[in-house]
Structures are given as structure tokens and as C-alpha cells.
Amino acid sequence: MTSYSSQDTLERIHAALEAARTVLNRFTPGATEAEYKSGHDPVTEADRAVDRILRQTLLRDGEGWLSEETVDDFTRLGKQRVWVVDPLDGTREFVQGIPEFCVSIAMVENGIPVAGGICNPATGELILGSRETGVTYNGKPAQPSQRKDLHGALVLASRSEVKRGEWKQFESAEFNIRPMGSVAYKLGLVAAGRADLTFTLVPKNEWDVAAGAALVESAGGWVLKLDNSPLRCNQKNPLISGLLAGGPFLRDPLLAMLDRHSQTVGTDKHPEHPR
């Protein structure tokens, strides 16, 4: 991205997040009816309304579109620049009135998430950034954790995974585990240095993680898929293995720890539960 297009992209992301926030103000978390898609994932009118405003605000000629709430027509596969969005990541928490949901927007160029924005309207947090500009948290420059080892580190875990018992294997670990909804929100908090690490034990979709991955890497952190390979987006099948992300000095300690648990990590049988 050129400096100009980086700024233009961030301005468009920011404008779209503000438009989404306005739409979400019409809905009350904890008092919004949900329907359930296959795999028991909830969807609300709020998801659909935000999807419409994001597409209207972001999409320009020549760009592709991948959203959890839009039927995928695969024309995006021939585009260099693709918007990958989740209009409401953490719908389950939104429906329950838990303030751990967000609007998630990523710009992907040639498969690489290069810019992203995450807005949690319940907490008023806005995390925005690109690989060229770095990351801001509520308008102020931010960077990921500079912690050197896992002892005492704060790890954000999937609320659903913890509830299903998948994190029991880490109960005696030297780090502190905090269950939380919305993988995009967790990644945003890691990018902004509000937590040291986050990782998932089940598959995710690109729209769950693209914006957060762009933010973590733009801030100076690292992101890997659960199989230790780099994240590539705008794939025909948007489902990826779980994701690992953290501050720059914690990659090797985390990978070594997970290697010791490798007989159980990644063997989850619940890919239908993406959060």
C-alpha cells in the first residue's frame, strides 16, 4: 500500500465503524431476538443491518467482499483488494448482554491482511491500524505486550472453549487465563497491549480473525495459524485452523508450551462453534 492508500483505507474503515456504531445504537444488547443458523450460531437483525451499512460504506469498484452475513459469490477470488468483515463478532455475547462483541473490518491485499479496525460499541473501544501506520487504541498509539516469558502473562481464551472444558489442560499453566467472547475483540486487545496473548483451539473463519490479525501484526506482534503456518486470507474456503497471536517476544515460549500439549491441541471436534 502506498502511504496515501493506507490513509484512505483507514479513513474508510473508521467511517464504516462509526456508521456501524450508529446502526447498533438502535439495538439493545441482551434484549435482541436471535435466530440460529446451522451449527447453533446465533444471528440477529443487528448483524444484518450492520452488514448492509458496511458494504454500502466500504465497497468500491474493483474490490472484493467476504462477510459472515453475505452469501459468498467467489468473485472476490479474482480481486487483489478484498474487504473481509464480521458485522458483529460475538453475537452470542451480544444476545446475552455481555459487553464482549465488536464490529470487525479488514482490508486484505493479495491474501495479506494489511489494515484493520475493530470497534466495541459497548465499551467505547476503537482499535485501528495498518502495516504502514501502526495501531491506535482510542486514537492513541499502541503496541503489543513486551513481556519476555509466559510467567504471569494474561491469555485471553474463548469463552465457548473454556465452557466446553477445552482449556482444562492449561489450568496448571504459569499464565493467567481470562475467558472472553469475540475472537476479533481478543485479537484487538492483544494488538493494543491490553493482554499478552490469545489463541484458539478450534477452527475459525477468515472474517473472525482477519482484522485482528492485521492489527496485531501492524502493531509489531505476531500471528500464526494453529498449524504454525502464516495466515493467508481470501481463500476459496475461508475456514482456517485455529489462530495464535501475541506480543513479539512470546511466540517461541508459547509454541514450546503448546508443543508439549500437542497431543490435545487442535483435536477439537466442534468446528461448528467458531467462538
What key phrases describe this protein's structure?
275 residues; alpha+beta; Fructose-1,6-Bisphosphatase, Chain A, domain 1; D-Maltodextrin-Binding Protein, domain 2; seven-stranded mixed sheet; five-stranded mixed sheet; 16 strands; 27% strand
Overview of the structural elements:
This protein has 2 domains: 3-142, Fructose-1,6-Bisphosphatase, subunit A, domain 1 (Fructose-1,6-Bisphosphatase, Chain A, domain 1, 2-Layer Sandwich), CATH 3.30.540.10; 154-260, D-Maltodextrin-Binding Protein, domain 2, CATH 3.40.190. Helices cover 29% and strands 27% of the residues. The chain has helices at residues 3-24, 45-58, 91-96, 159-163, 183-191, 206-219, 251-260; strands at 34-36, 42-44, 64-67, 81-89, 102-109, 112-120, 125-130, 134-137, 140-142, 154-158, 176-180, 197-199, 204-205, 222-225, 239-240, 243-246. Strands 3-4-5-6-7-8-9 form a 7-stranded mixed beta sheet, with helices on both faces. Strands 11-10-12-16-14 form a 5-stranded mixed beta sheet. The protein has a two-stranded antiparallel ribbon with strand order 1-2. Helix 1 (3-24) runs antiparallel to helix 2 (45-58) and helix 5 packs parallel to helix 6 (206-219).
